[in-house]
Design brief:
One of its GO terms (molecular function) is isomerase activity. The chain has about 270 residues and is α+β, with helices and mostly antiparallel strands. Helices cover about 50% and strands about 10% of the residues. It starts with a helix and ends in a 21-residue tail after the last helix.
């Protein structure tokens, strides 16, 4: 299985998982606060609809996407809020319907592209396989917020490798996300154990900057859904320990992150 199919398969897994999760939400539960400050379950769903809408446009209509991009503000957080605003006004049933239709269309559009097909994105153009990884990571992160809101656990699955690969692609994002300069040495390698015991090595061969441990926990780290102290991850040196303190697999402010729970977690 090549990287494109693995990536789009992982995207499909995460989309189904999020759909199954929100299918159970009803009534006032839509307004349940999540760990993201100021965001309810409704905000989480609306945000994912907006992200998958533009990802689908990038895959199907690159020139239309570029035109849309040119119209956006330079304020990242303002763009996020603007995209969500009309979706937050939808009824519960309509928001779920919009998520199902949008996510399905986006998965189909990305699946139709070769793995190395370059598509436009918010800052840099990237291969379609990497955009699949980005979508998988977004759905994983916001699904975790909804699970935390309802205190639900999740069984880890091997599709998490796609998120770990994306973590390597985005390994420098956390520094500006915390208002810091990107260091000169950005080499990094992950030596990971997958959910069913697989051994995965991702990143730069030969570097001393190594993160070792659980692949699932790495996904929780780079989405900033768990504090490093609560995860089964070991830093190979102080440089990596510093990277783990700021790691994030998305643009924009990383925020303060989660507080330590005082226990090792998997989901």
């Amino acid at each position: 299985m090549n990287a494109a199919h693995r990536s789009v398969d992982a995207l499909s897994v995460e989309v189904r998982a999020f759909t199954d999760l929100i299918d159970d939400v009803a009534g006032a539960d839509w307004d349940t606060p999540t760990p993201a400050p100021g965001w309810s379950v409704r905000h989480q769903v609306a945000h994912l609809v907006s992200v998958f809408t533009i990802a689908g446009k990038a895959a199907r209509d690159p020139e239309g996407f570029r035109a849309m991009l040119a119209s956006l503000s330079s304020d990242f957080e303002q763009n996020v809020a603007h995209a969500m605003a009309p979706l937050l006004e939808l009824s519960n049933d309509e928001l779920i319907r919009r998520w199902k239709a949008t996510s399905a269309a986006t998965v189909d559009a990305l699946a139709a592209l070769p793995d190395d097909q370059i598509v436009p994105w918010l800052v840099n153009d990237l291969p379609s396989a990497v955009l699949c990884m980005a979508g998988t990571t977004e759905a994983f992160a916001h699904g975790q917020d909804v699970r935390d809101a309802f205190d639900r656990r999740r069984e880890p699955s091997p599709h998490v490798r796609s998120i770990c690969e994306f973590a390597y692609h985005t390994r420098t994002f956390g520094y500006p996300g915390q208002g810091r300069e990107i260091p000169e040495d950005t080499s990094l390698r992950f030596e990971l154990t997958g959910p069913t015991g697989e051994s995965w090595e991702i990143g730069d061969a030969g570097t001393a900057n190594v993160v070792r441990g659980s692949a699932w926990d790495l996904a929780l780290l780079v989405t900033r859904r768990r504090h490093p102290a609560d995860l089964d991850l070991q830093a190979g040196n102080d440089h990596v320990r510093d990277w783990m303190s700021v790691a994030q697999a998305y643009r924009g402010s990383g925020g303060p992150g989660r507080q330590p729970l005082g226990q090792k977690v998997r989901s």
